[in-house]
Design brief:
The protein has 3 helices and 9 strands. Strands 1, 2, 3, 4, 5, 6, 7, 8 and 9 form a 9-stranded antiparallel sheet that branches. A hairpin with a 4-residue loop joins strand 6 and strand 7. InterPro entries: Pyridox_Oxase-rel, Split_barrel_FMN-bd.
Length: 139
């Protein structure tokens, strides 16, 4: 196997299938003009957008509402040197519709942190890219 055979680009459907398997990803955004990365639990909505549940007072909500962000999730096995990584890029929006909030309260993600008044954030899956690394043992 040549070194380039170890990497494989993933199509959109495969990326979304893999995202649905993991509970935690990372939001990549700008905070005070600097790059910031925050791990957060998430779920996928029926339209393939990424859903987050967080506090309405969080710095994250204020920093990402209405702007384009990236969301990344992955799974790797160091022993086999294999795994995958998926990045979703799109506009983040705090959801304010009461019916949508009620629906997501039942079916969407729940924060791993205790929250009094949770808000949901949707990241549109405008661009979805991913790649897989197939075990490249021995060099």
């Amino acid at each position: 196997m040549s070194p380039n055979d170890a990497f494989r680009a993933l199509d959109r459907q495969e990326c979304l299938r893999l995202l649905a398997k993991v509970p935690v990803g990372r939001v990549v955004y700008t905070r005070q003009a600097l790059p910031a990365v925050l791990p957060i639990n998430f779920s996928l909505d029926t339209d393939a957008s990424v859903l987050l549940c967080t506090s309405p007072d969080s710095d994250l909500v204020h920093a990402i509402d209405g702007v384009v962000v990236a969301f990344e999730a992955d799974e790797f096995d160091a022993a086999t040197r294999s795994g995958w990584s998926v990045v979703v890029t799109g506009r983040a929006t705090v959801l304010t519709d009461p019916a949508e909030h009620e629906r997501l309260s039942q079916t969407g993600p729940s924060s791993w942190m205790p929250l009094r008044d949770a808000v949901f954030v949707r990241i549109e899956s405008e661009m979805v890219t991913g790649r897989e690394l197939r075990g490249a043992l021995g060099t």
